[in-house]
């Protein structure tokens, strides 16, 4: 037993603690308290209870394999043994040496290899830990790629505790995708949710330990001061940070959050379609969260050489993506520029802006010419351009801006007078100009009738052409940057399209109490940043439901990043145009994304003027639209066109170019094109290095059942003694298309009900899961139910849950099966095809972190004198273990078999020691490669002249990474477990030949 104590405690191992037997779920070493072991009770008194033990506090004893008690299996067709062996196979985490994907084909999504690449990279051991940046462009399915990666980590025992951090706007859709497609439940937390948990748990307990898998908005966590002390006291298996470009700015609260979470997690998955801001140093800073020793010089590094193990990026035109899309992503349609000739009233505003706010530059430099007096009336040149941009949105937005500006100038003049400052006459000039603009905007009608606004009239006509009207099934989304424009459109457009009075939620109701889902059951919806999150969520969900009455959504750029609007919509109209290619692309990406089966169509309303020198939408907006479309066709993205990589920076730089008298063409000509830009542009070509590879490798997964459905069916019969219908309300049915599903009542299974509390509360409540849970293994039925939910009018949650290998119900049954045999018992299976006693033994090598590095499934024969070790799968197949192997008698001599147990364990141990070299390279080679790279990094980082502070940082990083390398090496002797024994029956009867296909 002392030898066994040299090992750690891998998941799946059985331990004795406090006179009870426990099953290890996960274990890790701590600085002061030895090993921290999370376990679930196995013995009667603590069955299904979860506990945490520390080896410096509790006496933790690993089960001694030599003391395994052999028990003949008398169950029908050795059902108990087959289930037990299958449960051990499923419960044992895949080892570090297994880098193939285990579950990629078992979820409710199309098996696209490009979406499996991030998981392949994360498991490759090219980095010491699964830490990668997924930087695919908008719409490729980063959420699905994250789900696949998390599922693989869970199967490896590295996903017990998960924290997902997303923007508030995509939180519920992320939670929805991970549960409905992967069976990964995430409990949504917000500030109120955290406070509620704190009221329920003992004082001082960390609220983040209450649930093991959590999704929370970055807006909640960015108040780092409020949650720092909790986050610093918890370790995660995996942390996901979506839209991670928000972490780049050093000193920001979001960056501080990342710096707290990074050291406190094993896996770190960052996701962003815009992963850098054009600054090499900032991007290197972000990469350091993934691998602190990847880059020597933050101002000089090679993207492919230094970052290839951390970073993956594809576009829609990348070969592997393009070849696999099929009908799941229709080709993008063209962007139609709809020219709208300004009305007479609008032309008067153009004339006012051209003459006084944005006058054309002088055409002569001769002294005394009139042109020298053509200067803007605005005291702020940037504001003058903002006036133009606001008018190009709507005269309503301009009127509000003029009012606000006038008030601000009046207040400033009053304060200057109070402070004794001289009155600025330029303010009076601008105030006069503001008064004229106010009169001009007031002269324009409210838009309730044609002729008031050229763009409004064009919008109504375009919506009619699309088919937006009462009784139609068509939907459209209209974007505008200005809230005042959105409110105005939502107020006047519905009536002009024939929608009755009351077709939009009342403005007065915004922000009030009540059920948002009921209040937003309208054909026209309005979403902007002024709505509370619950209201925005209700609107996003409504727009995704096919049977919901909504037909038209007016929204601002609060919906331009990460939000899915493509499920029921393929038409988008830009009422105004952002002065940023990235923002235009983000808007278009709401309906142009994976899963869009109808060609998305884009329209942009272009206000034109006949006033000489007027700057209308053709000056900037239309040129940007054309450039974005060209870049998308050529490169699949427009992010790198300007070299600024951030929407805000693009717009700021372009506006500055215009203020200085330049043009859009001048802006593009002046875009960064030096060495820095070329280096970052190299990041976009990385996909070409992987498209010619074979499909991602698959893990070897031995099994005694045809599939998970067969295992679950058999387990239900075994665990509940063929009375599952009475004990847990199990029923089996078929839908109208004869697709099978089953249902059960978790309320009758308290241990299952406890597990299901980790599911999304809205799903539990809406579907009444506690009383009745509907489940299916039928992929077609599950996919149809998911579609039905989207096409319903009241919920996005499907009423039938797809059973994956990591579904809580499957895991619950696996755990129950695993404890069917008593404490430290192993079944004896008899077969007339068994020539000699064969001991089935599991062998696990682990690293210092308690994670399996190698798992071997062995069959030991030839005992006691000439032991031979072969494959467990081959041994089971040879004797026909399967659903048709009948029980024909007990073992010939159980006492003799029992006496051979120590010899079987010794033979298995010796075999593992002898064959170490055969698998050692799988672990040691990538670790050795990284150790060499770490040495080069440390040497190159400590060139003469570095500061003492820099030297300390480098040395600490090198020491930390070297320590992690040591922890990842296989350590100690193997943990062994006798699982079962195969032998001939005492009296053998002839049987039909065993089906070799019983073991897959």
Can you describe this structure in just a few lines?
By secondary structure, the chain is of the alpha/beta class. It contains 36 helices and 28 strands.
Structural class: alpha/beta
| Strand residue content | 15-25%
- Main β-sheet, in a few words? 7 strands, parallel
Oligomer: single chain
Number of helices: 36
Average pLDDT confidence is 86
How far apart lie the N and C ends?
Answer: 35 Å
Cα gyration radius (Å): 33 Å
Low-pLDDT ranges: 1-7, 507-513, 684-691, 989-1000
Strand order of the largest sheet: 9-10-8-11-12-7-13
- Overall, the morphology is elongated
Helical content class: 25-40%
In total, how many beta strands?
28
What would you say this structure looks like, in words?
The chain is of the alpha/beta class and about 1000 residues long. The protein contains 36 helices and 28 strands. The protein has a 7-stranded parallel β-sheet. Helix 3 (about 115-120) packs across helix 4, helix 4 crosses helix 5 and helix 15 packs antiparallel against helix 16 (about 425-440). The chain is elongated and about 110 Å long.
List keywords for this structure.
1000 residues; alpha/beta; seven-stranded parallel sheet; six-stranded mixed sheet; 39% helix; elongated; disordered N terminus; disordered C terminus
